[in-house]
Amino acid sequence: MATEVKLPRLGQGMESGTIVRWLKAEGEQVAKGEPLYEVDTEKVTQEVEAEADGVLLKIAVPEGEVPVGRTLAFIGSEGEEVPEGSGNGAGPGSAPAEAQPAGAERPAEGAAREPEREQGREAAAAAAESQPAPAPAGDRADGRIKASPLARRIARERGVDLAQIRGTGPEGRIVAEDVERAEAQPAPPPAAAPPPGEVEVVPLTTIRKTIARRMTEAWEAPVFQISMSADMTRANEVRAQLVERLRDGEAKPTVSDVLTKVAAAALMRHRELNATFHGDAVHLHPSANVGIAVATDRGLVVPVTPGAERLTIAEIAARRVDLVGRARAGRLQQADLDGGTFTISNLGMYGVEQFVAVLNPPQVAILAVGAAEERPVVREGELLVVPLMTLTLTCDHRAVDGAGASEFLATVRAFLEEPALAL
């Protein structure tokens, strides 16, 4: 019996996903564990692997948004019939499946008809090229451009203006092939500049909508902030020593890596901060899964380093380089973002001296880090100039009290001023 390919729940809170493209065609052989299709969730676009061996008998949802658990395709033996009604699983925004009796087109026939499909694609491309240039986005009925997530990503990476492309997908939607075709053609003459003062409307992307929703949730929590400044003299010395001992190909440790290590060690001593809030209960976690806020073209993401308290600074640096690189390339997996118990947001590299970070629900605390600046301090009657870095901790008062938060932040400061204490 054919195996149904259903949209899995790839992360906590995932209710739906957008099918971007299929990596296998109907009639092709599929191996278990082999990438089968790409799906766009609220935070990442990732490949989903096949859960069975066999032939891809039918794709029920070519593209578009579908809920978790919806049947997307069928895998089975060559010549096996597909269950009746299998073409009716398309979700909103997806192209309707071709109506036909169950098993009307066998996988072998699907492979045989590939030249016909190719001719159809070429005809669609020729028709698109023969039509007049599309109207600018602002002249469209709803002011929005219909494009698949993959098309948007390719256009952004290659500097292609989606407003100048006529889509060949369902209902005129722009697909990846349209962007690639437009890139190969000469650029049209620049449009006239909009009148001075005209408002530009930029619709929210999926990830911006997610950020907006989560930040709204965060502001509903009763929060408080406390700040302390840490002398970074010893932390900077330790980082410099680690850099000196680097081998070829190893990641260069940064202040963020040192912070991740000392924060994880402090969380193990103050477990009420290594927690998540769930309505009528607080979950205290056994490991410090520290997330680092990363700015990308798509928006802010927080990839997680699990069990940071058990890792060396060098291991944390290697993990950070991998995560940040994949985050900015749009190749994060949902697993990279799940399970965080605490977040660090560092804006010191931008020269920011101090700021307040917004909670990352359901976590109960987030640490905002400013730049280390030389400032005068008086110690034992002597005036000294030392590199001070301001740390601001935002806490959910439903789970954390001021005393506990202050003790945690004092421990972080002590570990930064004497990193050996964190080992």
Structural class by SSE content: alpha+beta
Helix tally? 10
In the sheet with the most strands, the strands line up as 9-18-17-16-12-15
Major β-sheet annotation: 6 strands, mixed
Name the overall outline: elongated
Count of β-strands: 18
- In N-to-C order, the SSE pattern is EEEEEEEEHHHHHEHHEEEEEEHHEEEH
Question: On the 0-100 scale, what is the average pLDDT?
Answer: 82
**pLDDT below 50 for ≥5 consecutive residues: which ranges?**
88-142
Helix content: 25-40%
Percent of sequence in beta strands: 15-25%
Q: Whole-Å distance between the termini?
A: 56 Å
Q: Rounded to an integer, what's the Rg over CA atoms?
A: 26 Å
What keywords describe this structure?
single chain, 423 residues, alpha+beta, 6-stranded mixed sheet, 4-stranded antiparallel sheet, 10 helices, 28% helix
